[in-house]
Amino acid sequence: MPDYTAVCANSGRRRLVQTVLSVAAVGVVARAGIELAAPGRLGAQTNLSPDAALQQLVDGNERFAANRLTSIKQDLSMLRQQTVDKQEPFAAVLACADSRVPVELIFDQTIGDVFVTRVAGNIATPEIIASLEYGVAVLGVKALVVLGHSGCGAVKAAMKADSVPGQISTLYPHLRPAVERSDGNFTKAIEANAKFQAELLRTSSTVVRDAVNAGKLDVKSAVYDLATGKVTMN
Question: Into how many domains does the chain fold?
Answer without folding.
Answer: 1
